[in-house]
Amino acid sequence: MLRNWIKSNRGFLVLLLCFGIFRTAVADWNPIPSGSMRPTLLEGDVVFVNRLAYDVKLPLTDVVLLPLGEPQRGDVVTFSSPQDGTRLIKRIAAVPGDRVEMRNEVLYINGQAAQYDAPEVVQEAVGVGATVQATRWTERLGGHERRVQWLHGVPARSTFDAIDVPAGQYLMLGDNRDDSVDSRYIGLVPRHLLIGQARRVLVSADILEQWAPRLQRMGLPL
To answer: How far is CA 216 from the centre of its chain?
Structure first.
């Protein structure tokens, strides 16, 4: 019976296999479940992930078959947490050879302090019916810029001593600096745990407002 079913559905099974290989080796999409990358990414965004941005991997594994490109500071990437294997999405803040530190929320790379301007005070949702005041800034450092935010009155690791990033390791930070489980908590991320580079928002829905579609975010580049 099973053999006959497989025989009569071979085309469909081959299609499923090819689709699975495509998602695990070439390209993927990643839903955003938390606010750790606000304001860049919002809960309910679904982002396109290029799995061939850095490496060709054996499907369903972290085994690198062929390196294709070098991760850069400022890239938004998905990766497996070195702590427990959870898939996370953060921004690469420091690459191998960098000396990185943070002093009272200010990021330093190789002795150069980031510059912050264009402050904006907002009320940030931290759950259903709950908000906290936040300040958003444009952070500029090393030719890159992004919007980051800090939450008022929320304890976080806003200072850490200088770290020399070794070969094959990357330091990750969330853009929502006071609400992100990143390298300040889980440590540096080895290259083989990088999954791919997030390139743009595919679709988006406001999960705090009855899944209302956010059409203005569709196709938004990162």
So the answer is: 21
The separation between the first and the last C-alpha atoms of the chain, rounded to the nearest angstrom, is 50
CA–CA separation, 159 and 156 (whole Å): 9
φ, ψ (nearest 5 deg) of residue 213: -65, 140
Question: Residues 109-118: contacts with CB within 8 Å, 24+ apart?
Answer: 109/73, 109/141, 109/142, 112/141, 112/142, 113/141, 114/139, 114/140, 114/141, 115/139, 115/140, 115/141, 116/140
DSSP state of 176: B
Cβ-in-10-Å burial (0-12, 13-18, 19+) of 109 comes to buried
Among candidates 39, 25, 167, 177, which has minimal Cα distance to 97?
167
Q: What is the spatial distance between Cα 179 and Cα 158, in angstroms, rounded to a whole number? A: 11
pLDDT in tens, 32-73: 989 999 999 999 999 999 999 999 888 878 888 999 999 999
pTM of this prediction?
0.88
CA 47 to chain centroid, in Å, comes to 10
Q: Which two tokens stand for residue 197?
A: 């580079």
